[in-house]
Amino acid sequence: MRLRALDLLPAAATVGGAALVVVAACDYPGGYRWLEDTFSALFAPATASGADNPARPLAVAGACVVLAGMALLFHRIATTAESAAHEKMIRIGGIGAMVYAALTVTPMHDLMVTMALGFYVVALGALLHLLVREGRTVLFGVGVLVLVPKLVNATMYYLEFGLEWLPLIQKVSTVATLLWLVVTQVALRRAN
Predict the structure, then answer these.
(1) Would you say 157 and 167 are in contact if contact means Cβ atoms under 8 Å apart?
(2) Residue 7 banded pLDDT, cuts 50, 70, 90
(3) Which of helix, strand or coil describes residue 52?
(4) Where are the domains of the chain?
(5) Inter-CA distances, 38 with 90, 112, 124, 130, Å
């Protein structure tokens, strides 16, 4: 199957949304410190010092565009699955994770992080199983490697351990996940 424009839409959305987040970071009062501030700082109504955060609306919009692109990635990947169970788990888990992740910008942040993580684990587990079943060992291996910083991120967040490293790990895991999902989607779509 040839790669179609629709296959490139998720990547375009994630790049466009990420650009909005970068622009918002430039407008963050006092300067957004990429290695010291989590993404949540951009979404807060006020900074840690109490100043109003005018970057919030653009940061929220950017995050929603990125997450919509990721939801579309999970949907497009799910359409390649021959097994109905894989298709449903990847689609529902992936889209559910992105919906709950979008809600982390609300006062229910902690609960939404937990909900998003639960759905993400289901989607990623099903996707990794699908890749093993189809003999795609390289994509599977990279997927496992992508899972490591995500698990480290979750462990640090829930155990409140090594929080000084959390912003870096958060960004590494996010970028690694995005890149892997885009490559996986393209590879699976080309094979069908």
Answers:
(1) no
(2) confident
(3) strand
(4) 5-191
(5) 27, 16, 23, 32
